[in-house]
Amino acid sequence: MNATTEILSLIMDTPEAFKILEKAQDMLRNEQQKREEFYNWVTDDLKAEFINGEIIVHSPVKSSHAQASENLFSILRMYALKHKLGRVTHEKVMARFTRNDYEPDVMFFSKEKADLIQPNQSLFPVPDFIVEVLSDSTAERDRGIKFRDFEAHQVAEYWLVDVETKVVEQYVIKNGQYELIKKTDEGIIHCSVLKGLDFLVEAIFSEQKQFEFIQQII
Q1: How many distinct helices (H) and strands (E) make up the chain?
Q2: Is residue 78 situated within a structural domain?
Q3: Angle subtended at Cα 211 by Cα 206 and Cα 214, rounded to the nearest 5 degrees
Q4: Is there a single domain that holds both residue 18 and residue 125?
Q5: Collapsed DSSP state (helix, strand, coil) of residue 55
Q6: Number of structural domains in the chain
Protein backbone atom coordinates (compact mmCIF):
# COMPACT_ATOMS: atom_id res chain seq x y z
CA MET A 1 0.00 0.00 0.00
CA ASN A 2 1.49 3.35 -1.02
CA ALA A 3 1.31 6.50 1.11
CA THR A 4 -1.60 8.05 -0.83
CA THR A 5 -3.74 4.91 -0.55
CA GLU A 6 -2.92 4.59 3.14
CA ILE A 7 -3.93 8.18 3.90
CA LEU A 8 -7.16 7.90 1.92
CA SER A 9 -7.98 4.65 3.68
CA LEU A 10 -7.55 6.32 7.08
CA ILE A 11 -9.82 9.22 6.03
CA MET A 12 -12.51 6.94 4.61
CA ASP A 13 -12.55 4.91 7.83
CA THR A 14 -13.78 7.91 9.83
CA PRO A 15 -17.38 9.25 9.94
CA GLU A 16 -15.98 12.76 9.33
CA ALA A 17 -14.53 11.77 5.93
CA PHE A 18 -16.73 14.16 3.95
CA LYS A 19 -15.95 17.13 6.23
CA ILE A 20 -12.23 16.35 6.16
CA LEU A 21 -12.13 16.21 2.35
CA GLU A 22 -14.26 19.35 2.05
CA LYS A 23 -11.95 21.21 4.44
CA ALA A 24 -8.91 20.00 2.49
CA GLN A 25 -10.43 21.31 -0.75
CA ASP A 26 -11.04 24.72 0.85
CA MET A 27 -7.45 24.83 2.11
CA LEU A 28 -6.07 23.92 -1.32
CA ARG A 29 -8.21 26.58 -3.02
CA ASN A 30 -6.89 29.22 -0.60
CA GLU A 31 -3.36 27.96 -1.19
CA GLN A 32 -3.73 28.28 -4.96
CA GLN A 33 -4.96 31.86 -4.53
CA LYS A 34 -1.79 32.60 -2.55
CA ARG A 35 0.16 30.94 -5.35
CA GLU A 36 -1.30 33.31 -7.94
CA GLU A 37 -0.40 36.24 -5.68
CA PHE A 38 3.12 34.82 -5.44
CA TYR A 39 3.45 34.90 -9.24
CA ASN A 40 2.51 38.60 -9.24
CA TRP A 41 4.86 39.35 -6.35
CA VAL A 42 8.06 37.53 -7.28
CA THR A 43 10.59 39.45 -9.42
CA ASP A 44 13.38 38.44 -11.81
CA ASP A 45 16.12 39.40 -9.36
CA LEU A 46 14.65 37.50 -6.38
CA LYS A 47 15.21 33.78 -5.84
CA ALA A 48 12.06 32.47 -4.21
CA GLU A 49 9.99 29.30 -4.22
CA PHE A 50 6.38 28.46 -3.34
CA ILE A 51 6.25 25.29 -1.24
CA ASN A 52 3.10 23.94 0.43
CA GLY A 53 1.55 27.39 0.64
CA GLU A 54 4.68 29.11 1.96
CA ILE A 55 6.93 31.57 0.14
CA ILE A 56 10.59 30.68 0.66
CA VAL A 57 13.05 33.51 -0.09
CA HIS A 58 16.64 32.36 -0.48
CA SER A 59 19.70 34.14 0.89
CA PRO A 60 22.75 34.75 -1.33
CA VAL A 61 24.84 31.59 -1.66
CA LYS A 62 28.43 31.04 -0.59
CA SER A 63 31.22 31.09 -3.17
CA SER A 64 31.70 27.32 -2.99
CA HIS A 65 28.01 26.78 -3.66
CA ALA A 66 28.04 29.14 -6.64
CA GLN A 67 31.16 27.54 -8.12
CA ALA A 68 29.74 24.02 -7.85
CA SER A 69 26.42 24.93 -9.50
CA GLU A 70 28.15 26.93 -12.24
CA ASN A 71 30.58 24.08 -12.98
CA LEU A 72 27.72 21.59 -13.15
CA PHE A 73 25.69 23.83 -15.41
CA SER A 74 28.58 24.46 -17.78
CA ILE A 75 29.39 20.76 -18.18
CA LEU A 76 25.80 19.59 -18.60
CA ARG A 77 24.98 22.42 -20.99
CA MET A 78 27.98 21.75 -23.25
CA TYR A 79 27.20 18.04 -23.37
CA ALA A 80 23.49 18.59 -24.08
CA LEU A 81 24.29 21.12 -26.83
CA LYS A 82 26.82 18.86 -28.50
CA HIS A 83 24.45 15.89 -28.61
CA LYS A 84 21.25 17.93 -29.15
CA LEU A 85 19.65 16.34 -26.10
CA GLY A 86 17.62 19.26 -24.78
CA ARG A 87 18.01 22.33 -22.57
CA VAL A 88 19.95 22.87 -19.35
CA THR A 89 19.04 25.80 -17.08
CA HIS A 90 20.73 27.42 -14.09
CA GLU A 91 19.47 29.15 -10.94
CA LYS A 92 16.67 31.66 -11.72
CA VAL A 93 14.36 29.32 -13.66
CA MET A 94 11.09 28.26 -12.04
CA ALA A 95 9.55 24.82 -12.58
CA ARG A 96 5.84 24.45 -11.89
CA PHE A 97 4.77 21.25 -10.17
CA THR A 98 1.20 20.29 -9.29
CA ARG A 99 1.21 22.14 -6.00
CA ASN A 100 4.60 23.82 -5.69
CA ASP A 101 7.05 26.00 -7.63
CA TYR A 102 10.81 25.42 -7.42
CA GLU A 103 13.96 27.13 -8.65
CA PRO A 104 16.55 24.32 -8.52
CA ASP A 105 20.24 25.07 -9.01
CA VAL A 106 20.40 23.10 -12.28
CA MET A 107 17.67 21.49 -14.41
CA PHE A 108 17.62 19.53 -17.65
CA PHE A 109 14.64 19.33 -20.00
CA SER A 110 14.52 16.70 -22.72
CA LYS A 111 14.33 17.95 -26.31
CA GLU A 112 10.62 17.10 -26.44
CA LYS A 113 9.90 19.38 -23.48
CA ALA A 114 12.45 22.05 -24.44
CA ASP A 115 10.94 22.45 -27.93
CA LEU A 116 7.61 23.44 -26.34
CA ILE A 117 9.07 26.20 -24.14
CA GLN A 118 8.22 29.65 -25.51
CA PRO A 119 10.58 32.68 -25.42
CA ASN A 120 8.33 34.66 -23.05
CA GLN A 121 7.55 31.70 -20.79
CA SER A 122 8.39 32.19 -17.10
CA LEU A 123 7.00 28.97 -15.63
CA PHE A 124 8.70 25.83 -16.87
CA PRO A 125 7.39 22.23 -16.91
CA VAL A 126 8.56 19.43 -14.65
CA PRO A 127 12.17 18.69 -15.71
CA ASP A 128 13.76 15.31 -16.41
CA PHE A 129 16.85 15.87 -14.26
CA ILE A 130 17.48 18.14 -11.26
CA VAL A 131 20.62 18.99 -9.28
CA GLU A 132 20.48 20.76 -5.93
CA VAL A 133 23.63 22.00 -4.21
CA LEU A 134 23.08 21.69 -0.47
CA SER A 135 23.40 24.56 1.96
CA ASP A 136 22.58 24.91 5.65
CA SER A 137 19.30 26.67 4.89
CA THR A 138 18.11 24.37 2.09
CA ALA A 139 19.35 20.85 2.93
CA GLU A 140 16.25 19.85 4.89
CA ARG A 141 13.90 20.81 2.03
CA ASP A 142 16.22 19.36 -0.63
CA ARG A 143 16.17 16.02 1.18
CA GLY A 144 12.56 16.31 2.33
CA ILE A 145 9.66 17.92 0.48
CA LYS A 146 11.61 18.38 -2.76
CA PHE A 147 12.83 14.78 -2.77
CA ARG A 148 9.26 13.51 -2.25
CA ASP A 149 7.75 15.93 -4.78
CA PHE A 150 10.33 15.19 -7.47
CA GLU A 151 9.80 11.48 -6.90
CA ALA A 152 6.00 11.83 -7.05
CA HIS A 153 6.31 13.69 -10.37
CA GLN A 154 8.77 11.10 -11.69
CA VAL A 155 11.72 13.43 -12.25
CA ALA A 156 13.92 10.70 -13.69
CA GLU A 157 17.18 11.69 -11.98
CA TYR A 158 18.06 13.81 -8.94
CA TRP A 159 21.53 14.70 -7.65
CA LEU A 160 22.36 16.17 -4.25
CA VAL A 161 25.75 17.89 -4.04
CA ASP A 162 27.41 18.58 -0.69
CA VAL A 163 30.13 21.21 -1.15
CA GLU A 164 31.44 20.73 2.39
CA THR A 165 32.25 17.03 2.00
CA LYS A 166 32.46 17.16 -1.83
CA VAL A 167 30.09 14.19 -2.00
CA VAL A 168 27.51 13.66 -4.74
CA GLU A 169 24.42 11.48 -4.31
CA GLN A 170 22.75 10.18 -7.48
CA TYR A 171 19.11 9.10 -7.28
CA VAL A 172 17.29 7.51 -10.22
CA ILE A 173 13.63 6.51 -10.53
CA LYS A 174 13.24 2.74 -10.30
CA ASN A 175 9.75 1.21 -10.16
CA GLY A 176 8.27 4.64 -9.41
CA GLN A 177 10.60 5.47 -6.50
CA TYR A 178 14.06 7.00 -6.09
CA GLU A 179 16.89 4.56 -5.67
CA LEU A 180 20.33 5.70 -4.51
CA ILE A 181 22.56 4.60 -7.37
CA LYS A 182 25.81 6.14 -6.21
CA LYS A 183 27.21 8.25 -3.37
CA THR A 184 30.81 9.28 -3.92
CA ASP A 185 33.44 12.01 -3.59
CA GLU A 186 35.53 10.87 -6.55
CA GLY A 187 35.52 9.09 -9.87
CA ILE A 188 32.72 8.78 -12.39
CA ILE A 189 28.94 8.96 -12.19
CA HIS A 190 27.15 7.44 -15.17
CA CYS A 191 24.37 9.93 -15.87
CA SER A 192 21.08 8.12 -16.46
CA VAL A 193 19.18 10.88 -18.27
CA LEU A 194 21.94 12.43 -20.40
CA LYS A 195 22.87 9.21 -22.11
CA GLY A 196 26.57 8.51 -22.56
CA LEU A 197 27.74 11.15 -20.08
CA ASP A 198 30.29 9.72 -17.65
CA PHE A 199 30.50 12.65 -15.26
CA LEU A 200 33.78 13.35 -13.43
CA VAL A 201 32.80 14.17 -9.84
CA GLU A 202 35.94 16.24 -9.16
CA ALA A 203 34.96 18.60 -12.02
CA ILE A 204 32.10 19.91 -9.87
CA PHE A 205 34.47 21.33 -7.26
CA SER A 206 37.40 22.55 -9.34
CA GLU A 207 37.27 25.13 -12.15
CA GLN A 208 40.44 23.70 -13.68
CA LYS A 209 39.08 20.14 -13.70
CA GLN A 210 35.78 21.46 -15.03
CA PHE A 211 37.60 23.17 -17.92
CA GLU A 212 39.62 20.06 -18.70
CA PHE A 213 36.55 17.84 -18.54
CA ILE A 214 34.57 20.08 -20.90
CA GLN A 215 37.45 19.93 -23.39
CA GLN A 216 37.33 16.15 -23.12
CA ILE A 217 33.59 15.73 -23.69
CA ILE A 218 33.25 18.20 -26.56
Answers
A1: 7, 13
A2: yes
A3: 120
A4: no
A5: strand
A6: 2
Same domain, 108 and 187: yes
* C-alpha distances in Å from residue 211, one per residue of 70, 118, 193: 12, 31, 22
Q: Are residues 10 and 105 in the same domain?
A: no
19 and 64 share one domain: no
Query: What is the number of alpha carbons within 13 Å of residue 208 lying toward its C-beta?
Result: 0
The pLDDT of residue 1: 56
What's the domain range around 154? 59-217
Partner residues linked to 130 by β-bridges? 107, 158
User: Which burial class, exposed, middle or buried, applies to 76 when counting CB atoms under 10 A from its CB (0-12, 13-18, 19+)?
Assistant: buried
* Amino acid in the structure at residue 139: A
Span 180-192, average pLDDT: 97
Confidence of residue 107 (pLDDT cuts 50, 70, 90): very high
Count of beta carbons in the 10 Å neighbourhood of residue 15: 6
